[in-house]
Description:
- By secondary structure, the chain is α/β, with parallel strands linked by helices.
- It is built from 7 helices and 9 strands; from the N terminus they run αββαβαβββαβαββαα.
- The strands form 3 sheets. A 5-stranded mixed beta sheet has the order 3-7-4-8-9. It has a two-stranded antiparallel ribbon with strand order 1-2.
- The two termini are 38 Å apart.
Amino acid sequence: ADIYTGLVTSKKVSSWYKENKHIDRTPSLYLIDQENSAQSINLDEFYGQKLNIKDWILQSAMPLVGKLTHTNFALYEKRSLPMLMMFLDLENEDQTGNPGRVIGGKSGGILNEHLLEEYRVVAKEHSDRISFVFLDGNVHVDKMKSLGLYGGREKLPSLAFNTKSGSQIPFPESLPINRDTLFQFCADFISGKLQSKADAQEMAKKA
């Protein structure tokens, strides 16, 4: 995505941003993403931190739910958060009136964009603790296997957590993928109830 930058030097404009609680003080950075979600940081907060201005802008500009690629994987790694990966059939992802913003095609007979709409609702709640990404299950069959997801294209859509510990925590195949089941899956993971495939199956039984 393109990032447009501007410099504010007017005291009147800066005062307006402070009065409306967009920023605390100057100098500061203020960023609005494509979904009109805003973030700000005071420049003096960078002192003594490993994060720099470039990294803050790149990480803050990352989408709520983004397509994982070889070019942005390092950015997600820097977040040091567990990653919930949604594997989709993206063979026809560009067959849409708004490529890049609306994901075309279907996975398991369900519109990819409908699946991602449910996914985004959950991401809004947990994006500070989990990175939410999607990727092409046709291309990343080996990655799916390493996360405990087997069957390839026939099993799409599929989800699993990618953790530093390497634990296999696949989303239960018996459950539909919607905001309710995803909220439960994430809540159980955050609380520590979900640490293995067996835990995920237990969650499915309760659901």
